[in-house]
Structure formats: C-alpha cells, structure tokens
Amino acid sequence: MIMVDSNMWIYYFDESLEEHKYVKEPMREIIMGKEGILANTIVIQERSERNNDT
C-alpha cells in the first residue's frame, strides 16, 4: 500500500501547476501499479469539484 500525500494529488490533477510535470509519470505508475493506494478521499473530491467549476 502506498500513501500518496494530498499535495501530490493536487499537483497531478492540476495541469496548470509547475509541479504537474514532475509528478505526472510517477503518479501514473502508482495508480496503474498493483500495490494499492491509500489516499484522503476529501482531497480528491475537492480537486474534482474545482475542475468541474471551470
């Protein structure tokens, strides 16, 4: 199980951030991996809602 910090999720989902290019591929590897992910779902939902507002 891999714990992903909330900032990493924000950087991954927000392509306008400078950090996005650094976390894009490592996060994809984690998401597609078989180890499993431990994440705070509130952060993911909040980011998703912000993307839907634009």
Overall geometry: globular
Query: How many domains comprise the coordinates?
Result: 1
- Helical content band: 55-70%
Helices and strands: which structural class?
mainly alpha
* Computed Rg: 11 Å
| Low-pLDDT ranges | none
C-alpha termini separation: 33 Å
How would you describe what is shown here?
Helix content is 63%, strand content 7%. The chain is mainly α. A two-stranded parallel sheet has the order 1-2. It is globular and about 30 Å long. The relative contact order is 0.24.
Strands, helices and their partners?
Blueprint lengths: L1 E2 L2 H8 L6 H13 L4 E2 L2 H13 L1
Parallel strand pairs: 1-2
Describe this structure in a few short sentences.
The chain is mainly α and 54 residues long.
Using brief descriptors, characterize the structure shown.
54 residues; globular; two-stranded parallel sheet; 3 helices; mainly alpha
